[in-house]
Design a protein that fits this description.
40% of the residues lie in helices and 33% in strands. It has 2 helices and 4 strands; from the N terminus they run βαβββα. The chain has helices spanning 14-25, 73-102; strands at residues 2-7, 36-44, 50-59, 62-70. Strands 1-2-3-4 form a 4-stranded mixed beta sheet, covered by helices on one side.
């Protein structure tokens, strides 16, 4: 699984990159078919600086994505990973359901 991390308008620290890679690696529990993962980090500098993380996961025949905003990149990444994990679970469940019905 290939992981690309993009930080828009800032340079991500090495500790943040390591955290992202460990979080994304946890997605392999949900699917062995993951081809690549793109993580895009950005922040809006307003009164409360909003830090957002977008995760795009490529699996065969599909692209799954999730975005989350918070006051911390680690919170945003964790929440987005959880959203993608739910999507991967749903995709896997649908595949199993189709296979079961095909065998009838």
């Amino acid at each position: 699984m290939k992981v690309n991390i993009t930080a828009r308008k800032f340079k991500a620290r090495e500790t943040l990159k390591e955290f992202i890679e460990s979080e994304v690696a946890s997605l392999e529990k949900f699917s062995d078919d993951i081809i690549s993962v793109d993580v895009i980090l950005s922040f809006q500098n307003s009164k409360e600086s909003i830090k957002s993380a977008e995760i795009i996961v490529k699996v065969p025949k599909q692209i799954l994505s999730a975005t989350d905003d918070s006051d911390d990149f680690q919170k945003s990444v964790s929440a987005a990973v959880q959203k993608v994990a739910r999507q991967l679970t749903k995709v896997k469940t649908k595949k199993r359901t189709v296979r079961v019905h095909d065998n009838d």
